[in-house]
Amino acid sequence: MWWRIRGQGLLGVWIVAVLLLCLESVPCLAAETVQRAQVVASYPHDPAAFTQGLVFAGGLLYEGTGLYGESSLRRVRLADGEVLQQVDLESRFFGEGIALLRGRIFQLTWREGTGFIYDLESLEKIGEFTYPGEGWGLTTDGTYLIMSDGSSLLRFLDPETLEPVGTLQVRSSRGEVTLLNELEYINGEIWANIWLSSVICRIDPQSGQVLGWIDLQQLSAAEREGNPGADVLNGIAWDAEAERIFVTGKLWSRVYEIRLVPAD
Questions:
Q1: Which of 91, 97, 85 is nearest to 52 (CA)?
Q2: List of long-range contacts for 128-135, beta carbons under 8 Å, 24+ apart
Q3: With contact defined as beta carbons under 8 Å apart, do 8 and 228 qualify?
């Protein structure tokens, strides 16, 4: 995580630290509904995978990983975590979020302003696109691609032209919500990992208002207990057919299937 803090200066580090303390505190979020995760099942996950994007489709996980020289796009079998196919990015690219739409996989990069398009069946790269600023998370509502860049704004992109068609500012009862990271579209809502925290926010895609928060602090703590090298929570996948939710994190050893229950 240091590479995103580095370069911001001491003030930037202080701001991030204060925000992190707030995000990790359930009372701080209590103005909206707070839920917690109950683990239904867990599955093996490559602990060397720096997860930046996660999608479930056709009974398989698709995963985008990051770090310079280690970034990839993967097709993964859920049951045992085996990587069935992998496409490595050039070492100058830091892979970020991914989304599946119309038989294609779209993948962002962090600071390179370049996105990649792959054929879903073969994982062959069939195109590239560019965008201003940083790329963090990516999902789709079935019509547009929805992209985060670490700010409070989400960008909607036309999947054919890859041009922006609109933006959405995310706000809670306490104001703008920044550090929006990995995204997933679930039952008409946008879910976003909040970077540097063990919290997911649920967002209304029409108004940008935060509908609620999901507290995964206990899950993150349990993962770190058995895997001291685990980094932050990052990765949400939705099995629409079976209505299953999967979460994981950067360098996590497991993918967790969860259901939501009221917070204590």
A1: 97
A2: 129/162, 130/162, 131/155, 131/157, 131/162, 134/110, 135/96, 135/97, 135/108, 135/109, 135/110
A3: no
Host domain of residue 148: 2-262
- Whole-model pTM: value is 0.90
Task: Name the DSSP class of 68.
Answer: T
Residue 212 corresponds to which tokens in the numbers above? 């609620």
How many residues in the chain? 264
Please tell me the total count of domains within the chain.
1
Alpha helices in the chain (DSSP H): 2-5, 9-23, 217-226
CA distance 232 to 108: 19
Q: What is the pLDDT of residues 108-159, one digit of tens each?
A: 999 999 999 999 999 999 999 999 999 999 999 999 999 999 999 999 999 9
Distance CA 48, CA 135 (A): 22
Q: Which two tokens stand for residue 215?
A: 């507290």
Q: What is the CATH number of the domain that holds 166?
A: 2.40.128.630
- Spatial distance between the Cα atoms of 244 and 242, rounded to a whole number of angstroms: 6
DSSP 73: E
Cβ-proximal residues to 225 (8 Å cutoff; 6+ apart), any chain: none
pLDDT of residue 189: 98
